[in-house]
What does this fold into?
Amino acid sequence: MSYSVRQVASWAAVTVRTLHHYDRTGLLTPSSRSRAGYRLYDETDLARLQQILFYRELGFSLDEIAAILKDPQANALDRLRARQRQLSEEIARLQRLCEVAERAIEVQQTGVTLTPQERFEVFGEIGFDLSYATERQLKWGDSQGQRESMARAAAHTKEDWRQLMAEAGEWRTRLLAAFDAGEPSDGEAAMDLAEEHRRHITRWFTTCPPAMHRRIADDFVADPRAFALVVPPSQQRPGLAPYLGKAVHANAARNDSPEEER
It folds into this structure.
C-alpha cells in the first residue's frame, strides 16, 4: 500500500517541504511515484522515516543520520554513545544555569542579597524555600507591606542580617523554653514573646499591626515552610507552630485597637 506525501507529512508531524528536502538529499526517497509524478511512500519508507525522526529528536544532523542509515551496524552504536555523552554534558550545563537562575530568583523573592557562603554563615539552618517565597509573593500581592519588606530586606547589609538573626535566635531560645516549660499559649510569657516577634518584624522589615501578625502566624500553622523561617526543623517540637499561632492571636487581641483594625 502506498501513501501520498501529504498523508505521510500529517502522520509524522512534519511539513511536506521537509519530505521534499529529504528526497532531494537522498535521505528518504519514496519508493514510487504516481502516474502524475506525485511521491508515494510504502511501509519500508515509513520505517526509514521513523528512524530519521528518532535520530533528529536526539539532535543528530542530517549528514550524521545519512551515515548511520547507510551502515547502521558500523555507525549507530558509537554515534549514539557519543550523543549520549554530549547530552549528559548539556544536561549538566543546563543544571548549572538552573542553579544560577534559582539563586537570582531567590534574591528577588526573598530580598536577601548575600552570597551563598554568607547566607550559610549568617542563617545557618534557617533557609528560604523558593516555592514558599513564590507562593507568599502571590498571596500577599503588591501590598505596601510586602513592597516595604522586600525593599528593606534588600538594603540590609551582612552585619544587619547577623544582628537580626542573633536577635531571632535569642528569641527562639526563650520561645522553646516557654513551650517546654508548659507556659500557656495565652499566658503573659507567651504573649510577650509574640509581641517581641511582632516588633522584630516592624524593626527589620515592615510595620506589622496585629491583623498582619495574625496572618503571618496563620501561615506558620498552615505551612511548615513558613514556620521553618523562624524555627528550623531540628529545633521544632510537635505542637510548637500552633502554640506560637495561639500566642500571636492572644497578643493581637490584647493589643487590638479600633485604629489598628481600621
